[in-house]
Specification:
This protein is about 50% helix and about 10% strand. By secondary structure, it is an alpha/beta fold.
């Protein structure tokens, strides 16, 4: 009998035009001035206007901060936090993919605290003395699940790595998942973020903290992604597929958060992303199969279930055969989504492997991997990426 804890706190509102409920949700927080944190791409796509309208309709004053970069940095957190203080923002509305939402969490922290910010990185739960501003998150990609996560991934360029800030106080109070805000997402980003969602579900299912509740949610998320990711990629206007991917993305991270862990796929991908300033979803896709292969000996029965959920016909396979079929299934998914990137195309350097292995060993996802990881294991995994 396994003793476990599971808790999900974010209010999730999902459905077509659900962004229209934003003003009501902000009013429920008891505030009348919010900072909207986003990026230039969201502004250019016209999505920001669709978020601002329901706020103004509810007489909520807005300050716009659209300076978030693809891998948000500690400097962005400081600039945004200072701006929020100066403008008197009482809450944060995050609009975009994982980067704006993660940046919003860091900005919410720095709007209420003096830092230094680096002291809050990788420092355990809620290491800041003052409660951050409340956050409402509106994802425009279906993948990161940052809208229901109590962690924010921030890049420290001077150190060449990505680190988490973590705490219940930066968990968004509300997440609004409106598929209409995702239909303009380009196919390659649909692919990268969708694979990221799948990785969250799979690693939550396999991690050391997995439990019956998180397993049920993770299985549902894997199945939803398998049934919808190709549809969303091939036809961006398929609103049902877009909606299902948003729901799957949230479910996957709820499972991961409830299971208190991810694993080696994220350790590898986050290390590469931080070191070379690469898109997170892309590095996840490139590292996915190798990370799964490493963990296969630890949980073959669960791998067989994953294969079935991915749509592999396992009816005539042994359990071992079904388990092994997961790796080629992931490689085929990447191929179907035209994800053909390699270490070489991402300009990963072999000479960097010892340093990459050191950073990966320190990654927050490493301790919850189902198979123990060492510096030597990471060296072999990074070496394997060149073949």
């Amino acid at each position: 009998m396994k003793t476990f804890k599971f808790q999900a706190r974010t209010k999730l509102i999902a459905g077509s035009d659900s962004v229209q409920q934003l003003g009501t949700e902000v009013n429920a927080l008891g505030v009348n001035h919010v900072m909207v944190v986003t990026d230039k791409g969201i502004v250019a796509a016209g999505l920001l206007d669709r978020v601002i309208r329901p706020l103004h309709k509810s007489n909520i004053t807005t300050t716009i901060f659209d300076q978030v970069e693809p891998n948000p940095t500690d400097e962005t957190a400081l600039i945004g936090g200072r701006r929020a203080k100066e403008e008197g923002a009482q809450a944060i509305v995050a609009v975009g993919g994982g980067s704006p939402i993660d940046a919003a969490k860091a900005i919410a922290v720095m709007a209420a605290n003096d830092g230094p910010f680096v002291d809050y990185c990788g420092a355990g739960g809620d290491p800041w003395p003052n409660t951050p501003l409340p956050i409402i998150a509106i994802p425009t990609t279906a993948g990161t699940g940052a809208e229901v996560s109590a962690a924010g991934m921030i890049n420290l360029p001077k150190q060449g790595r990505k680190v988490d800030i973590f705490g219940a106080s930066i968990l968004p109070k509300v997440a609004i998942a409106d598929a209409n805000l995702t239909i303009t997402l380009p196919p390659h980003l649909t692919a990268w973020t969708g694979v990221d969602a799948l990785s969250h579900a799979v690693e939550a299912y396999l991690c050391l903290g997995a439990n019956p509740v998180s397993d049920a949610i993770a299985e549902g998320a894997i199945s939803l992604v398998a049934q919808n990711i190709r549809r969303a990629y091939e036809d961006g206007s398929d609103l049902e597929a877009r909606h299902n991917m948003l729901v799957a993305s949230a479910m996957a991270v709820i499972a991961a958060s409830g299971a208190a862990g991810l694993g080696v796929i994220h350790s590898l991908a986050q290390t590469l992303g931080g070191f070379y300033d690469l898109p997170h979803g892309l590095t996840i896709a490139v590292c996915f199969a190798d990370g799964l292969a490493y963990n296969l000996p630890a949980l073959p029965e669960k791998y067989a279930t994953i294969a079935r959920l991915l749509g592999v016909d396992t009816s005539k396979m042994t359990m071992e055969e079904a388990a092994k079929s997961v790796i080629p299934a992931i490689r085929q998914l990447n191929a179907d989504l035209n994800i053909t990137d390699t270490y070489a195309s991402m300009k990963v350097q072999r000479d960097d492997i010892p340093q990459l292995a050191e950073y990966a060993l320190l990654d927050g996802c490493t301790p919850t991997n189902p198979r123990p990881l060492t510096h030597e294991a990471f060296v072999e995994l990074f070496e394997g990426g060149f073949y």
